[in-house]
C-alpha cells in the first residue's frame, strides 16, 4: 500500500492540523473550520498543470464516485500554489470539470505561502518560456487525508489508484 503514515505518533495528537483561510472558486472566503466534521482529501497544484494535477483530480473524482453515499462524509479540496494565475474565476473553470464537488481554493501569495507551510508542502515557480505566462510550477504531489477534526492522517503518493484510496479511506471512516 502506498499510504505513508506519519500519523499517530500519539493516538490523540496528529502530526499537524489543516489550517487555512483562502478564497474558493465561487469567491467565498473559506477556512478549515468550514469543513469541520468531514474527512478532507487535499491536493496542492495549479490549473495550468499539464499532467500531475489533472491526473490526481481525476483519481479524486473516481474516489468520490466509488464512495457512493459515503461521499457526503468527504470533502475534496484543490489548493492552488499559483495565485498569480489561479484566480477564483480560473478555478471556477477548472475544478467543476472533474464533477466531484471539489472546492478550489486560492489566495494571495502570502496566504498560499502560509498555507503551504502549515501543510508542509513544497512549491516553486520555474521559468519556462513555452508555458503560459512564461513559467510553470514545481510542487509536492501527494494527496493528503485529514480526519473530521482536521487532524492529519496521512498521504498517498502520486499515482496511487482510486481503488487503493477508496479501500483505505473506507477502512478509516
TrEMBL record:
InterPro entries: SCO1/SenC, Thioredoxin-like_sf, Thioredoxin_domain
PROSITE patterns xref list: THIOREDOXIN_2 (PS51352)
Alphabetized SUPFAM superfamilies for the sequence: Thioredoxin-like (SSF52833)
Keyword terms: Copper, Disulfide bond, Metal-binding
CDD domains named among the record's database cross-references: SCO
Residue stretches making up the Thioredoxin domain: 11-173
Disulfide bonds: 49-53
Any matching Pfam family: SCO1-SenC
MF terms (GO), sorted A to Z: metal ion binding
Binding site residues for Cu cation: 49, 53, 139
UniProt record similarity statement: Belongs to the SCO1/2 family.
Name of the protein in question: Protein SCO1/2
Species in which this protein is naturally found: Sulfitobacter noctilucicola
Amino acid at each position: 500500500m502506498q499510504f505513508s503514515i506519519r500519523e499517530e505518533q500519539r493516538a490523540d495528537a496528529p502530526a499537524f492540523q489543516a489550517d487555512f483561510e483562502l478564497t474558493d472558486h465561487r469567491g467565498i472566503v473559506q477556512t478549515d473550520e468550514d469543513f469541520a466534521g468531514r474527512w478532507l482529501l487535499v491536493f496542492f497544484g495549479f490549473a495550468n498543470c499539464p499532467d500531475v494535477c489533472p491526473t490526481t483530480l481525476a483519481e479524486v473524482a473516481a474516489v468520490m464516485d466509488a464512495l457512493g453515499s459515503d461521499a457526503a462524509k468527504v470533502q475534496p479540496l484543490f489548493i492552488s500554489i499559483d495565485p498569480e494565475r489561479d484566480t477564483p474565476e480560473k478555478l471556477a473553470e477548472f475544478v467543476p470539470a472533474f464533477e466531484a464537488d471539489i472546492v478550489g481554493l486560492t489566495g494571495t501569495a502570502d496566504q498560499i505561502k502560509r498555507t503551504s507551510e502549515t501543510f508542509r508542502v513544497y512549491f516553486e515557480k520555474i521559468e519556462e518560456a513555452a508555458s503560459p505566462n512564461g513559467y510553470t510550477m514545481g510542487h509536492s504531489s501527494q494527496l493528503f487525508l485529514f480526519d473530521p477534526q482536521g487532524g492529519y492522517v496521512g498521504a498517498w503518493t502520486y499515482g496511487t489508484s482510486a481503488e487503493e484510496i477508496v479501500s483505505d479511506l473506507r477502512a478509516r471512516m
